[in-house]
Every structure is written in C-alpha cells, then in structure tokens.
Amino acid sequence: MKVVDHIKSAKGKTLFSFEILPPVKGQSIQSIFDAIDPLMEFKPPFIDVTYHREEYVYKKHPNGLLEKVSTRKRPGTVGICSAIMNKYQVDAVPHIICGGFTKEETENALIDLDFLGVDNVLVLRGDAIKTEGSFVPEPDGHNYAVDLLQQVMGLNQGAYIHEEVQGSKTNFCAGVAGYPEKHFEAPNLNADIRFLKQKIDLGAEYIVTQMFFDNSRYFEFVDKCRDAGITVPIIPGLKPLATKRQTTVLPSIFHVDLPEDLVNGVEKCKDNAQVREVGVEWCIQQSKELQEKGVPCLHYYTMSKSASIKKIASALF
Ligand code: FAD
Q1: Does residue 244 contact residue 272 with C-beta atoms inside 8 Å?
Q2: H/E segment holding residue 274
Q3: What residues contact 311, with CB distance under 8 A and at least 6 apart?
Q4: What is the mean pLDDT of residues 281-298?
Q5: I need a labelling partner for 237 at 20 to 30 A (CA). Which of 58, 155, 167, 255 fits?
Q6: Is a pLDDT exceeding 80 seen at residue 163?
Q7: Which residues, including other chains, have CB under 8 Å from residue 275's CB and lie 6 or more apart?
Q8: pLDDT tens digits, residue range 194-206?
Q9: What mean pLDDT is reported for the chain?
Q10: Is 80 exposed, middle or buried (0-12, 13-18, 19+ CB in 10 A)?
C-alpha cells in the first residue's frame, strides 16, 4: 500500500514510522530484525530503508603501495525491503539515489522493486562521495532528485529508456526530501522550496523532512511550502540526540541548528547515558507538540538502534 494511502486511511491520526540503515557488510540481517522487533508494537505502517553509495578505501599491498578501491559498506537495501515486507507484513520504502547509478541501472533497480511488490520509493539525489568535495553524477546518470523522479514517473507511465520496450506500467508512490533549515547547497530557503515544488509538480506525493530540533523551523517551513502551493503531506523527521559528540557532528553533517537549551542540557550530562535521557525527553516534547498540531506521521531516524525510539513511541502511541 502507498504511503499516502496509509496517511489517508489514518483519517487525521498521526502515524508512527521510522528509518533503518542496512547493516555494515558482513553483519547478518538479524541486526535489522533486532532493531525493528521492539518497535513493531507501535504499528508502523511503513519502514524506510536508506541507500548507501560506494566510498573509497585504501588497500595496502605487500610492497607497501596503497591502492584506492571503491566499496559499498552497507549494501542490501532491496533485500532488506523484501525481508521486512515478508516478515512483518508492513510496507518498506527503499531510498533510491542518483549517485553511482546510470539511468539503465536505475531502471533495472526499479523493475526489481516493482517485481518484489514494493509500492513506495523515497527519491533522492544522494550526497557526494565522502572523499569528494561535491556531488558528481554518473556520466549517464541523474544530476538532481527531480531528474530521477522524472524517470520514476516515466516508468509509472510505461516509459522505458529504450523506446522499443513496450512496458507495463509501474505504480510507485514517490516521496522526496525537504529541508526546514534549507539544503546546504541552496542559495536560500525560497530557492530550495522552488526546487522542491518542481518535484511535487512532477508527481511526488509527500515530503519527509531532514531532522530538526526546534519545531518552529518545521512549522515555518510548512507555512512557506503551503504559500508556494505545495499541498502534499509534509512528514517531520526526528532524531533523539544520543551522544555529546553529536552536538557538533550533526550540525556539520546535516546542516541543522541545535537549540541552546538542548545543548546546555547535554553539556551538564556526566556521560552519554545521561545524554540519551536528555535526547529522549527533548524528542518526546517535540513529538507531542507535532502530534497535537496534527502532523500526518512522526518519522524517526533510528540509526538502527531502537531503545531511545521505543521510549519516545511509548510516550506517544
Ligand atoms: P535535490 O532535490 O536534487 O537537491 C539538491 C540541491 O540542489 C538542493 O540544494 C536544491 O535546492 C538544488 N536543486 C534541486 N533541483 C535543482 C535544479 N533543477 N537546478 C539547480 N539546483 C537544484 N542520502 C543518501 O545517500 N541515502 C539515503 O538513503 C538518504 N536518505 C535521506 C532521507 C531524507 C528524509 C533526507 C532529508 C535526506 C536523505 N539523504 C540520503 C540525503 C540526501 O541525499 C542529501 O541531502 C542530498 O545532498 C540532497 O538530496 P535531495 O534529494 O534533497 O536533492
């Protein structure tokens, strides 16, 4: 079932959903089930599975020379989606990205997902490879999420890359990303929202936001989106702080602000166990206010660790 249909059938009740990461290569899928199992009592109608592109590592040869090799540390997104749908009978939402994919490879991945009965995709550009300064598309790949979305929407109309293929139509519900505090490359928030609107006009049916720690940023973003003519559901993405280090790491990776009160609270903590308590309490307060305002769904970034999310969900659902 499509994410937007889950939202419609909830008839105004706020849904609970979350995102997991594929395990690091070499770990079994049990680590994913261990993260999901404790959260199933809160009845998530869908679970997102992130996609992680290749990165470069240096392999040392016996002669001392280093070879730069490309590797994907967290493969398995499609397989995990299929396993989730089989084991839990809930919808899985694979993230699909432009980075590292040619159009042909994207088409083949979408065909696989369609055959597996996956109805949803979260369509993203993806970030630059860690060791590269800026995003570089494949020679025959997509530059922006909007271009990838166009391919997904085309396939929903039966348009395959090679025109001689008379295609059956896929039926994907596509979500896209939104940034209450602006995507870091956008010159300003209005420009970012203009590009977001292009994705909605092309057929994206809902938006999931980047994490934020101050609800007023989300509410202002939603107002601006509505003013720009974006009417689709805007699902807030939330993450509880878990370590002291995150007060500097999250702003640098995700380009988000942490409110002073939250940072002050974390600074007083003796260890990360106390930080987790502060993070959970902050996230509960954020979630309660969002729920009271009638957001369609509360979507949590779990990093595949469920203990904090379980405490938050217990206070709300
Ligand atoms: P885009 O929509 O392509 O936007 C990228 C930048 O280009 C923005 O600054 C935008 O304003 C600008 N822009 C957009 N269209 C145009 C245009 N036509 N012309 C000029 N400028 C334009 N990354 C992963 O690798 N894997 C994941 O699983 C993943 N999951 C995510 C889930 C969520 C909910 C979010 C919020 C992010 C996720 N990301 C993931 C990170 C995401 O890939 C990065 O933030 C990436 O840098 C931008 O992706 P996007 O889809 O927003 O890109």
Answers
A1: yes
A2: helix 272-292
A3: 280, 284
A4: 98
A5: 155
A6: no
A7: 241, 242, 243, 244, 266, 269
A8: 999 999 999 999 9
A9: 96
A10: buried
Q: For residues 178 and 235, what is the distance between their CA atoms, to the nearest angstrom?
A: 9
- Minimum CA distance residue for ligand 1 atom 52: 177
Q: Give Cβ neighbours of residue 16 (< 8 Å, ≥ 6 apart).
A: 42, 43, 44, 297, 298, 300, 313, 316, 317
**Percent of the chain at pLDDT exceeding 70:** 100
CA atoms of 18 and 298, how far apart (whole Å): 8
Query: Six-digit token pair at 20?
Result: 């997991």
Work out the average pLDDT over 241-250.
97
172 pLDDT higher than 80 = yes
pLDDT confidence of residue 42: 98
pLDDT confidence tier of residue 135, bands split at 50, 70 and 90: very high
Question: Whole-angstrom Cα distance, residue 34 to residue 110?
Answer: 28
Residues 176 and 123: beta-carbon distance below 8 Å = yes
Exposure pattern of 27-63 as b/e (b: 16+ CB <10 Å)?
eeeeebeebbeebeebebbbbbbbbbbeeeeeeeeee
Q: How far is the CA of 177 from the centre of ligand 1 (A)?
A: 6
The set of residues, in sequence order, having a beta carbon less than 8 Å from that of 224 and lying 6+ positions away, is 189, 190, 193
**How far is ligand 1, taken at its centre, from the CA of residue 194, in Å?**
13
Q: What's the predicted TM-score (pTM) here?
A: 0.97
What is the CB < 6 Å shell around ligand 1? Answer: 50-51, 53, 95, 97, 124-127, 144-146, 177, 183, 185-186, 192, 195, 208, 210, 237
Testing ligand 1's pocket by substitution, the residue of 48, 144, 255 carrying the most ligand atoms inside 8 A of its CB is: 144
Closest CA to 14 of 302, 311, 291, 202: 291
Q: How many CB atoms lie within 10 A of CB 154?
A: 18
The two tokens of residue 47 are 């679970």
pLDDT at 130 over 90: no
